Amino acid sequence: AEERMLAALAYLQCAVGCAVLARNRETNLAYGRHASPSFRVRVPARAAWVVQELPSLALPLYQYASESAPRLRSAPNCILLAMFLVHYGHRCLIYPFLMRGGKPMPLLACTMAIIFCTFNGYLQSRYLSHWAVYADDWVTDPRFLIGFGLWLAGMLINIHSDHILRNLRKPGDTGYKIPRGGLFEYVTAANYFGEIMEWCGYALASWSVQGAAFAFFTFCFLSGRAKEHHRWYLQKFEEYPKFRKILIPFLF
């Protein structure tokens, strides 16, 4: 019954992703520089990132510590869950403390992020620790190897792009600047491209409905953000490179 429920939750995640994609075509996104002044209750940026990402870190750690997680006796399951854990370990414990300033996050956006990270953290960690079955040699399967490579490359792109964004301003600067270097020479949202690539690799390596649902939702959510960023840069800077794509080099 739980295995069927986890599959149903994955399909629900896909449906929510479609709804998010449709909504992003109709309204602006309430976050960061795009947040409406009507959102008066806000959470400091560093605290918001730690709190909202924490469920996706704590739930896999709980499964690793649990004695009733039968599938974690298998190396492929352990590695796949570790891939999920490494990302959220960075997002929760490292990324927030590297931030320079950062605009306070609307409480509503932070709350929705907490709900998602709790939902997805449970879905991914519970599936990999209790139900996903892989052969012992799955780690040598081309799907796993290619997926792992995409995951690693995507995470490195994401981290490098965040580094570029953090260093756009010199001490004392308050204005916005055009990102330069790395994949920002080709797309507006290089950091989002890296994260989407990361979770597509994870989905391929896990070869599961649950992993694919997460990758699909990530694309739906971040593509809307990327489009908004791209529009904002074009309006803000007359010299913004017109050849840059929104999210995917040479395509979109």
Automatic annotation (TrEMBL):
The answer to whether the entry has keyword 4Fe-4S is no
Alphabetical keyword list: Differentiation, Endoplasmic reticulum, Lipid metabolism, Membrane, Microsome, NADP, Oxidoreductase, Sexual differentiation, Transmembrane, Transmembrane helix
GO cellular component terms, alphabetically, are: endoplasmic reticulum membrane
Q: Principal localization?
A: endoplasmic reticulum
Q: Where is the 3-oxo-5-alpha-steroid 4-dehydrogenase C-terminal domain?
A: 104-252
EC number(s) of the enzyme? 1.3.1.22
- Which PANTHER family has this protein been placed in? 3-OXO-5-ALPHA-STEROID 4-DEHYDROGENASE, 3-OXO-5-ALPHA-STEROID 4-DEHYDROGENASE 1
Record family assignment:
Belongs to the steroid 5-alpha reductase family.
**What is this protein's function?**
Converts testosterone into 5-alpha-dihydrotestosterone and progesterone or corticosterone into their corresponding 5-alpha-3-oxosteroids. It plays a central role in sexual differentiation and androgen physiology.
User: This chain belongs to which protein, by name?
Assistant: 3-oxo-5-alpha-steroid 4-dehydrogenase 1
This protein's species is Macaca mulatta
The root-end lineage is: Eukaryota, Metazoa, Chordata, Craniata, Vertebrata
Which gene does this sequence derive from? SRD5A1
